Amino acid sequence: MPRRPDRRDVYADDFRRLCEALAGEVHPFRPDLVVGVQTGGAYVAEAMLARLGHPAYVAVRAQRPATRVKEKVRLGALVARLPRGIADILRWVEVEFREHGLRRTPAEDAVVDFTAAQADELRAAAAPARRILVVDDTIDSGRTLSGVTRAVRATAPDAEVRTAVLASTWSNPPVRADHCLFDRTLLRMPWSLDATPPA
Q: What is the per-residue pLDDT across 156-198, written as a single tens digit (0 to 9) for each?
């Protein structure tokens, strides 16, 4: 039986502290463009901008199909009402199921389609950039992060591109971020489907 990932609730001040810590780790890279992957990665990126010296910033939308399905069937309202222990077990089961099932589909096969407006905004911001940081909140399979990073590299082939996340959830992810605060950790953020912020 695989070890359960650690779990951490991240709200308000803790979220700001973690974003500051990630920005501190990334700071020596001195990115002149930060690309935030919506939704969670954009929140993390925006919280990092001041510590990074206010580089140019672009948010792009790229979601896993599973996330879109969960949003469409409105699982969030149901999951948020579950006792915390049951919600934690469900999240762990989802991570293990996805890690086992997606091993057959390499993360490199992920394709991200930006809207025309997103592609234009990214192209304009990336043109003068030499160091680009792609930020997401967490990484599971790496499909989203690798797809966005590949699109950024195609848009700015002469720039150095690095990636940063708060946490990686899989025990053996096929894609690893250049900067990651927590390995094998499930973060419950304010925008998580099972989020129930403290009163």
A: 999 999 999 999 887 777 788 999 999 988 888 877 665 565 5
Tokens of 172: 């053996």
Q: What is the pLDDT of residues 108-125, one digit of tens each?
A: 545 677 888 989 999 999
Helix, strand, coil shares of the chain, percent, nearest 5, are 45, 20, 35
Read off the pTM: 0.80
pLDDT 10s digits, 71-105: 444 555 555 566 666 666 566 556 565 655 665 55
Nearest partner of 119 among 92, 89, 151, 86, judged by Cα: 151
Distance of CA 92 to the CA centre of its chain: 18
**In this structure, what DSSP letter does residue 28 have?**
G
Phi and psi at 53, nearest 5°, equal 85, 20
Beta-strand ranges (E) seen in the chain are 6-9, 33-38, 56-61, 131-139, 160-168, 179-183, 185-188
d(Cα 199, Cα 196) in Å, to the nearest integer? 9
Which residues lie below 8 Å from residue 119, measured CB to CB, with a gap of 6+? 155
